[in-house]
Specification:
The chain is of the alpha/beta class. It contains 8 helices and 10 strands. The two termini are 28 Å apart. Bound molecules: NADP nicotinamide-adenine-dinucleotide phosphate. The site of NADP nicotinamide-adenine-dinucleotide phosphate has 25 residues, from α1 and α4.
Length: 191
């Protein structure tokens, strides 16, 4: 599956490099439109193109890589119809989510898509570096409510050289991956 990325900042570019490691084509988008991304895309190299958010959202796997307070605006009005959405965001606010995880809220915003939380626990710098380290593979944590969607995300990261660990559903695993929770910032190598 090709990868669309909404958000072309630090994390979006790190995910573009990860998808390229996995041999996938990438369409990247922001709110200012394709013309604003010419320099970014030429730095990323062949295999990455610019598009509108709608074009990025029509890929089989769509990464949401925008600041938490921009997520709603970034995904609003797009056509969500079975895509796998990787929620790579972190909610740094102290807002009360009323017992829900931030990825469950994202899933509500992209109803019709299948959300997998991934790529949010590592810094962009670590995520985009070679995942084959010290004779092993860097661990990427994933959570989600749809088994097939998780399999697609596991395949993406495994093809890029990572070792994936499935933590369960968005409520349980998603909670462990959130900021201020046990796996935030943890950089493990599976030997
Ligand atoms: N940086 C990290 O190390 C890191 C690590 C883990 C997770 N994360 C998470 O990843 C997310 C992005 O962080 P970042 O560091 O990459 O931020 P960033 O460098 O500020 O980039 C944000 C990107 O989102 C785009 N954007 C903002 N509003 C948008 C909208 N409405 N529609 C489409 N694109 C929009 C911005 O472009 P325009 O303003 O031009 O639209 C920009 O390309 C955050 O939720 C963060 O918590 C970041």
């Amino acid at each position: 599956m090709d990868v669309g990325i909404i958000g072309a900042g630090r994390l979006g570019q790190a995910m573009a490099r990860t998808a390229m490691r996995a041999g996938r084509s990438v369409v990247t988008a922001n709110s200012r439109g394709p013309d604003s991304l010419t320099t970014v895309v030429s730095a990323l190299g062949e295999g990455v193109s610019v598009g509108t958010a709608g074009e990025a959202a029509s890929a089989g796997i769509v990464v949401v890589a925008v600041p938490w307070d921009r997520v709603s605006a970034a995904v609003q009005g797009l056509n969500w119809n079975g895509q796998v959405v990787i929620d790579a965001t972190n909610d740094w606010t102290a807002e009360d989510l009323q017992g829900r995880t931030s990825s469950e809220l994202v899933a509500d915003l992209v109803a019709g898509a299948r959300v997998v939380k991934a790529a949010n626990t590592l810094s962009a710098e670590v995520l985009e570096s070679d995942p084959q380290q010290a004779g092993g593979r860097r661990v990427i944590f994933i959570s989600g409510d749809d088994a097939d969607a998780k399999a697609e995300v596991v395949a993406l990261f495994q093809n890029a050289g990572f070792a994936a660990i499935d933590l369960g559903d968005l409520a349980t695993g998603g909670a462990m991956q959130q900021i201020h929770h046990p796996l935030a910032g943890v950089n493990l190598i599976r030997l």
